[in-house]
Amino acid sequence: MQYWRQNRGTQRRNISWIKILMCWTHGFSAGLFPLTVLGWPDNTADLSTFYPTSVLETGLDILFFWVARMVMMGMLLHGDIYLHPIIRDAHGRKMSKSLGNVIDPIDVINGITLEGLQKKLEQGNLDQGELEKAKEGQKKDFPDGIPECGTDALRFALISYTSQSDKINLDIKRVHGYRQWCNKLWNAIRFAMIKLGDQYTPPATLAVHTMPPICKWILSVLSKAVGKTVSSLEAYKFSDATSSIYFWWQYQLCDVFIEAIKPYFNGSEEFESARGASRDTLWACLDTGLRLLHPFMPYITEELWQRLPQPKEACRKDSIMISEYPSAVQEWANDKVENEMEIVLDAVSKLRSLRPPTDIQLRSPSFVLCRNLEIAATVWCYQAQIATLASVSSLKILTEDDPTPPDCATNIVNKDLAVYLQLRGALDTEAEHEKLRKKREEVQKQYDTLSQKMSASGYREKAPQSKQDDDMKKLATLLEELEIISEAESKLDAKN
Predict the structure, then answer these.
(1) How much helix, strand and coil, in percent to the nearest 5, is found in the chain?
(2) Assuming Cys at both sites, which of 36, 227, 232, 264 could form a disulfide with 271, CB separation 3.0 to 4.6 Å?
(3) How many CB atoms within 10 Å of residue 336?
(4) What is the CATH architecture assignment of 169-333?
(5) Overall average pLDDT of the 57-77 stretch
């Protein structure tokens, strides 16, 4: 003891150096850990299979002391390292026991009441003041507790959050939104099993060239979604992969394709060929879509995939987990049909926007004014799909020589296409004028912005000629749309 007191300063300096040496040594050894456990420096099968590793879970507070060494050693000695964000609460605060804002993943998966959450706080080591503050925070954030979200929804939400730089502000409402989306997947499979029937056997290959345009479209956008997902996974852009998958399932398969093919299954002999093609396409979409989604939602995709029939020629795998992951199918790609469907969906959206909130369930007659033969041919080809998706009672194609239908609200899709919806009762001219005014402001703003850009100094010298030509075409198109809006306003004034 006497020696310690006399040499206290020296001992403290020695202990400090020992701590620094231990910290450096720990950082060095930990940095090598992902490599050495897989057999490095030998080029083992485990190293080539499992490195780079799947996840490096760490906090930003040790980013320099530990992770930086691991990153530098990994990049120098063997490949790349992926860092996922740190998970925070919905307000962006780091989860901390003292704040009482720690979210247990099990509570998100299984759900928990507010009373259950607060009981967990009471079992902790918070003092009375911290406990009351934490309880107030829980009451504000989870007044009804945490709803049951399931493993798949939590997993998908966390992966989709990875675009948020170095942190995830976890909002349980978003996780629960993906839980509700899982119901959409169930409904899609339930619809398919009813329409496919017990005796359905999928074909070994799809005869895409003989299919209706709506089937060609969904297969084309599916192939594009597969390509985007695979390239995003290879680039470690996991959020982009989830966005691509979600957009295809939600907005293209469920909202458009499944709704558009429902009339084919009304029993009419007229649709016999389209009905068969729709069955084959629906099966191909669900089989491919579930395999595409599987890494992100493994449990629900396994359950749903097991319910799908398999082709007789195929050697069925016991699990979706060991099935081949999808790859883009070049034979499905069809830019022409995708461009046509883009016009169709724009027209559907404009028609839907014309329906008054009070008549949301009412199906009214509708009209489309086509200003050139190409647009007229596209609308004619997809006439049934437009009527079905827009929920209108009929759809009549007009040319510029036809009179404007009476008592109709109007919307402009583009310079070559306008849509009309016949309203019940008197036309609200003020409301129609307001819609046209907003449309004029929107188009005028685009026109002014593009015109200013083209008039800027150096534009003609620096911009490629192809870009200048495209901008000139866009400017002419916007000018034509402004003229069409003026024409619609004049016709509306003439009715007063």
Answers:
(1) 65, 5, 30
(2) 264
(3) 11
(4) Orthogonal Bundle (1.10)
(5) 68
